[in-house]
Predict the structure.
Amino acid sequence: MSIYEAFEPKLNYVMDQLQTELRSYDRMRFEETGDHIYEHISARIKTDESMREKCRRKNLPENAHSALHELQDAIGIRIICAFRDDIYGILEHIRNLPGVTIVEEIDYIRHAKPNGYRSYHLILSVETAFEDVEGKTPGHYFVEVQLRTIAMDSWASLEHKMKYKKDVKNQALIEAELKRCADELAACDVSLETIRNLIRSS
Ligand code: 0O2
């Protein structure tokens, strides 16, 4: 049986609703300004295996309450933007969404992780008409949102792949090179934003 028990269809519903909302906001902004607010969105429900592994790692029982109440990333949405400014624009939109509360917010863009990782992380609590794992109606479901530029996302994908190659020589050199790449990409993001602003003001 799935760790999410009978709540699994509800997770898909909440994930789809939020994506639909973001897509319609993008359409509206595109009609107004001619610019998209993001390049693409991806979303996933954390797999049963991966959620069980996380419960074990955090010494939590492997059940729906741990997966949906103690942990907050069963539903994940990643929003990839062309420019850093767009991330902060979407953030303001999310802040004002009815029925959505930001319960945690980490700006790994202004405060990059020591390895160079950059992204803006949010944990949302989304109100729904149906029951949640605590037996409450209206129910509340957590959603982890990651907002990144294309450059930040490329780096994170490559770094994630490389993490699985444990037996590499020169670990320290590789980590230092990855950090250097992350910092160079961050500098490019700033330059690209400056170019866009120059084009907009000309
Ligand atoms: P997936 O499949 O992407 O969800 P924890 O989840 O306990 O390990 P915590 O404190 O809950 O960590 O959250 P944190 O550190 O903010 O990271 C959560 C997610 O951010 C990760 O999810 C990654 O997607 C991404 N992330 C954070 N740090 C890094 C990093 O250094 N490199 C890369 N590539 N991604 C990072 P998961 O759990 O890895 O899996």
